[in-house]
Amino acid sequence: MRKYSSKGNHFVYEVLKMMEALEDARKELIRVDHLVYVSLKYTRTVDMIKHVIGRLISAYDFLNHALLLYSKEQKKINEIPDTPWLKREKLMELFKDDETIIKNIQIYALLRKIDKVEEYQSSREFRRHVTMTSEIDGKEVKVDIDAIYECYNGLQEFNEYVKKMIEGEEEEDV
Description:
Blueprint: H1 9-43, H2 46-73, H3 84-94, H4 99-116, E1 121-123, E2 131-136, E3 139-144, H5 145-172
Helix pairs in contact: 1-2, 1-5, 2-3, 2-4, 2-5, 3-4, 4-5
């Protein structure tokens, strides 16, 4: 447990915001879990794939925010950027040597691009292999249920990684 009194109220506030971001990510993961293993499993539509992608992005947003708050607490940055793109760039800069974080930030960026695509093709809807196909950066990208499972599982691992990074640091401060 941290010693809060020696560092002031501002420090306590920052730690609470960081823990709140982690809790929000956990809650979003619960929603994604339901969407992946219940809703998507039974509806098997591209609309549901898009909805799951939106929730995955939301969970990544919370985790990225927690990492930025952690960096601010560590005095690596003074301010947290406002836009998702600037946040992503700042995280890439701060954690350039951490392969896990870099890989997940790249997945997050790809998910954001997929989510923003307005023209996409649906194939095999209402079947196990429902697929959303779109073009991103000149390349054809196919998203199916298996890709969603893979993203979800990777996000769960990333959540645990970020949580251990932040909470592990808290235990070391005692």
